[in-house]
Design goal:
31% of the residues lie in helices and 23% in strands. It is an alpha/beta fold. Residues 1-43 form the signal peptide.
């Protein structure tokens, strides 16, 4: 604890009862004694990298639960704190003094950061309020609060606007425990005399996106069993109820805070079925920066993610579908992924129809020392791109992160809000007549409560003018042309964040599962929806009928060459099969989402889709077969629970050269039906072997697991063999008789 501040506690209380003259003298003396060091007016923004060598937890710690973020003539001052006893012994009664300095002005951003980290040496002669703390049991906490009405005289001592230092100073009555927490208190311009300088423009962005998509089992079952067009492939991915409600709560904030700018992922928009958005981002929050860095366009196409799937026009089309309005429009901005918005990535975005992108990290003029408009016009091969860069520190606070590990008050929303308000006020005072517009972004995982808390406080910030995204985009760019391009290309991130090895594995897996679906559609499903020959399946069908050759790469409506049934909303076989590809590609696109931490789970889900489709066909076989002759039959049954006919093969192998089965048997099976088939068994000796049967398509690709049948041969003489032996015996008998009657007798007989 600062010993200088400990001495001030008693003085601060006496000052509240003293005269104004004594106050002035006392403040001057303190200022001389502490020896203020004058810092440069525009110190460089502090490094916000967290320090892993955090100080040990104190015996007693203070947490701000809530605090009046902006003091106005009518706000009063409310304070709610939690005091935690981290020791093994009870802590005596104590008190917390809320100390400030009504006349102190922060002179640099370093000044603010040092204060937030508990390193600043600022005299605090002014006592706002004292909170009495009861006895605290070991490893327990208590909550204390205070509320000063707006008429309280001490609040009128804030006779100039701006951020002020605040220290919450705890001391137990026995002096055994002390603790101090540094924060800020900010007075608005309302109710104060003097000229008002122009407001600082600020745009508050709330991304509406998600990363916890998963395979929807209900939709998956409907895809296989249902011929109706009412089942949409886009529904294959779903969010759980908790995530959906969290997104819906954020979406509804627009009705309370019209200045919050919602940037919606079209996939989320389709899930919520809501029009509450000012702008759209790329479909599925696709990571454009990673795509550009990977340089593997064919890999993405083979995985089911062609350029058209994440073009800006696709976002608008989704909006029109959700609103059922073919003319609906919203601006579309590309959100930054894990990588950098260098000129190559910006050109890729521009090629896809995005003339404006939002940079959420690693895009700023690091040599600049003052907050400035974060708008850049960067030339690319496909045209200029407007980059709207978020302010790093303010966005960090809004997204729920402390500016440093040492800033102990910023461990929760209330503390971060106090810092945000103070920091924004300082930025306005730093260049009061400079026309600037800052972009601040909440994190994709920010809760509705966090956004609501910040937006409610910002409405009281008289020095801020909350604007929309289009106003920001129309602002005078901070840089343009070659200068802006240089900033883009000097802004780099660690190549490790791209994780190209994992990306290539994901793309390979997706390409494999998509190819499996294509093989099923072209080699198993009868694309014209009709059975060859008779309507019933023919056992051991030797005509080797193969499915139609519909283009399985077409993931559109597939209306051409498709046969629908009599129902108006029923799909033809080709449409039905292409819907599976559309569902696969939906999962593939989401697995490449910049905000998806579970991309591997979605990739695995595509394999689950293929497996479930294949499970729609099955093979039933006997467990054991006994053979007592040279030939026999092995009866099997192929089932088809799909709504369309299929054509496939039964493959059979044995592990014996003396006991064998038919190698392949072709089978056609009607929809929702079954068909018998027969495998011939040939034996040449007695013994036992195992026959392995599986379903394959006409290209030999397995469609099912291995089914086994044990064949036991007890070979006996067959009819033909017996006849041969009898004939030989008869011939031998005839020869014997002939010889008996025609041989010459010996004279001695």
């Amino acid at each position: 604890m600062n010993p200088h501040r400990t001495d001030l506690r008693h003085t601060a209380r006496q000052r509240c009862k003293g005269t104004a003259l004594l106050t002035v003298l006392f403040t001057l003396i303190l200022a001389l004694c502490t020896g203020f060091a004058v810092r440069p007016a525009h110190a460089e923004e502090p490094d916000t990298t967290t320090n892993t060598d955090q100080a040990a937890k104190p015996g007693v710690s203070i947490t701000v639960n809530s605090m009046t973020p902006v003091i106005t003539p009518s706000s009063g001052y409310k304070l709610n704190l939690t005091v935690m006893n981290n020791t093994d012994a009870d802590v005596d009664h104590g008190s917390i003094d809320a100390l400030t300095n009504f006349t102190y002005n922060f002179i640099s951003r370093t000044d603010l950061q040092e204060w937030a980290e508990g390193r600043g040496q600022i005299p605090l002669p002014d006592l706002l309020v004292t909170l009495h703390v009861p006895r605290i049991a070991a490893h327990k906490s208590v909550t204390v609060n205070s509320s000063l009405p707006a008429s309280e005289q001490i609040l009128k001592q804030f006779n100039s606007w701006g951020p002020r230092p605040l220290a919450l100073d705890y001391r137990s009555d026995d002096g055994a425990q002390t603790s101090t927490l540094h924060s800020f208190v900010t007075r608005s311009q309302d109710g104060l005399q003097g000229e008002r300088t122009p407001q600082l423009h600020m745009t508050m962005l709330m991304p509406l996106t998600a990363g916890d998509w998963s395979l929807d089992e209900t939709t998956l079952k409907a895809l296989r069993a249902d011929r109706s067009a009412k089942t949409h492939a886009s529904a294959i991915a779903a969010l759980d109820s908790k995530s959906t409600e969290a997104l819906r709560a954020k979406d509804q904030l627009m009705q309370r805070f019209p200045h919050v700018q919602t940037l919606a992922d079209p996939q989320v928009l389709a899930t919520l079925q809501t029009p509450h958005t000012q702008a759209l981002m790329q479909p599925a929050d696709f990571d454009i920066t990673r795509y550009s860095y990977a340089g593997n366009a064919n890999g993405y196409v083979n995985a089911g993610v062609p350029l058209s799937s994440w073009a800006s026009s696709n976002s608008v089309q989704t909006l029109r579908t959700v609103l059922n309005d073919g003319t609906a429009e919203r601006p579309v901005y590309a959100m930054q992924g894990v990588g950098a918005w260098n000129t190559e990535a910006l050109d890729t975005a521009r090629m896809q129809g995005y003339d404006t992108v939002i940079a959420t990290h690693d895009f700023d003029d690091q040599d600049d020392t003052a907050a400035h408009t974060g708008v850049y016009r960067v030339p690319t091969a496909h045209g200029d791109v407007t980059v709207m860069a978020t302010h790093p520190m303010l966005s960090q606070l809004a997204a729920g992160q402390a500016t440093s590990q040492q800033a102990q008050a910023e461990t929760n929303t209330a503390g971060r809000l106090q810092r945000f308000i103070a920091q924004s006020a300082f930025y306005q005072m730093e260049q009061p007549y400079q026309n600037r517009c800052l972009l601040v972004s909440f994190g994709p995982d920010s809760s509705a409560a966090n956004v609501s808390t910040f937006m409610g406080a910002l409405q009281e910030a008289s020095w801020l003018d909350l604007t929309d995204l289009e106003t920001l985009r129309a602002s005078e760019p901070y840089m343009s042309g070659d200068d802006a391009a240089a900033v883009a290309d000097t802004t780099t991130v660690d190549p490790a964040v791209y994780d190209t090895a994992t990306l290539n594995t994901t793309l390979t897996t997706l390409a494999h599962t998509r190819r499996d679906l294509q093989h099923f559609n072209t080699s198993v499903l009868l694309a014209d929806g009709s059975m060859p020959g008779d309507s019933a399946a023919q056992a051991g069908d030797a005509n080797n009928t193969k499915p139609g050759n519909g283009d399985a790469n077409d993931t559109g409506d597939a209306n051409d060459n498709a046969t629908s049934d009599d129902s108006g909303d029923a799909l033809g076989a080709l449409q039905w099969s292409n819907r599976w590809l559309q569902a696969h590609d939906e999962l593939a696109l989401l697995s490449l989402n910049a905000n998806t931490a579970r991309s591997s789970a979605l990739t695995v889900a595509t394999q689950a889709m293929v497996d479930y489709l294949r499970q729609g066909i099955g093979l039933t076989n006997p467990t054991n077969v006994n053979v007592v002759s040279e030939s026999a039959s092995l009866p099997v049954t192929v089932t088809n629970s799909l709504p369309y006919p299929i054509s496939l093969r039964i493959s059979s192998r044995t592990d014996s050269m003396e006991i064998v089965t038919s190698r392949f048997v072709d089978v056609n099976v009607p929809p929702d039906s079954e068909a018998p088939a027969t495998l011939e068994i040939r034996v040449s000796t007695s013994g036992t072997t195992v026959a392995n049967q599986e379903l394959v398509n006409h290209e030999g690709v397995p469609l099912s697991g291995i089914h086994t049948t044990t064949i036991t041969s007890s070979l006996q003489i067959s009819d033909k063999s017996g006849i041969v032996f009898i004939i030989i015996a008869v011939l031998l008998g005839i020869v014997g008789l002939w010889r008996q009657f025609h041989r010459k007798k010996d004279p001695d007989e």
